[in-house]
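Why should sequence recovery work at all? Because a backbone constrains its sequence more than one might expect. Tight turns favour small or flexible residues, buried strands favour hydrophobic ones, and helices have their own preferences. The token representation captures these environments compactly. In the example below, the structure is given first.
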């Protein structure tokens, strides 16, 4: 009897311990590094006639993935190359450039950052040294001005020696609605559809390929993070404008593999609508922030970063909807 009770106790303790671990600790994100000979988490793949993308980890940033937890893409035109997202540090930018040189001898003339977050802008320091023109939304530049040094220091903490030569730089060109550039005979359009995940979110359209590098407008596989300044009502409206323009196109989201509009609609708009409807019910019943944290989001438990984001997302939606 004693041994049976002892065995059950051990099993229960082990189960509780496993439940307390994050998805990263439980190994649910898959390989922690798919390209061990490169600073990149994974090497670029061709996704259309002109576009390649290095799909980042759907994990939080770590020393092992070097902060490559978003998608780093490039577009090859007839005269030059555009990079979309500078990377989280110079080591990543340098590694991406090494891969670009395997595909073409053309110069990287432009870099567009999808927003002002670290993994989109910190590697711009390297691209600046290569003579590239740095482009971003005006609100993303404001994020760099206000938060850039804190973002840089946090990256240095996790990336360690990979961050040694990385410094903060500003955009050379900023825009408000859209910016059109030519890579020889290939037209590229960078534009905003309105307020979304974070300040300065832009998507990059390659009309000839019917492909959009959606950035953080669109999510799937990975749970969308909702920040303190994220207006989910406006994000839904922006997403609808985005879908109207790129319906039927190939979608390269900011995180996760290449997909389509239907998939990112489920992963973005439908999730936001679900969370808002749950919070609205709590507000109408006179509930509290604690109730928001307890919203049952188990239908999304298979999404990466669920453990890190689900409760926090619900709390932030509640805090904003209280004053809508």
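From this structural description, the recovered sequence reads:
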């Amino acid at each position: 009897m004693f041994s049976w009770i002892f065995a059950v106790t051990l099993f229960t303790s082990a189960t509780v311990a496993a439940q307390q671990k994050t998805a990263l600790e439980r190994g649910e994100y898959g390989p922690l590094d798919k390209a061990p000979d490169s600073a990149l988490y994974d090497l670029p793949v061709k996704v259309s006639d002109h576009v390649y993308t290095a799909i980042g980890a759907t994990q939080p940033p770590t020393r092992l993935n070097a902060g490559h937890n978003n998608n780093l893409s490039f577009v090859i035109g007839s005269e030059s190359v555009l990079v979309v997202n500078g990377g989280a540090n110079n080591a990543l930018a340098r590694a991406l450039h090494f891969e670009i040189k395997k595909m073409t001898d053309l110069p990287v003339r432009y870099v567009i950052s999808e927003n002002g977050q670290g993994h989109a802008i910190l590697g711009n320091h390297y691209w600046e040294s290569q003579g590239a023109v740095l482009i971003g939304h005006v609100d993303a530049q404001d994020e760099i001005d206000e938060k850039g040094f804190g973002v840089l220091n946090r990256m240095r903490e996790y990336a360690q020696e990979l961050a040694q030569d990385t410094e903060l730089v500003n955009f050379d060109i900023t825009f408000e609605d859209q910016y059109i550039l030519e890579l020889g005979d290939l037209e590229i359009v960078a534009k905003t559809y309105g307020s979304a995940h974070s300040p300065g979110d832009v998507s990059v359209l390659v009309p000839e390929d019917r492909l959009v590098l959606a950035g953080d407008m669109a999510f799937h596989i990975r749970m969308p993070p909702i920040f303190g300044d994220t207006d989910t009502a406006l994000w839904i409206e922006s997403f609808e404008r985005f879908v109207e323009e790129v319906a039927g196109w190939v979608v390269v989201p900011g995180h996760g593999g290449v997909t389509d509009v239907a998939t990112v609609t489920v992963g973005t708009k439908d999730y936001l609508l679900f969370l808002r409807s749950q919070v609205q019910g709590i507000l109408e019943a006179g509930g509290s922030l604690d109730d928001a944290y307890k919203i049952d989001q188990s239908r999304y438990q298979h999404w990466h970063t669920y453990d890190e984001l689900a409760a926090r997302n619900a709390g932030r939606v509640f805090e904003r909807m209280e004053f809508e």
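A few observations help interpret the result. The CA atoms of residues 77 and 88 lie 25 Å apart.
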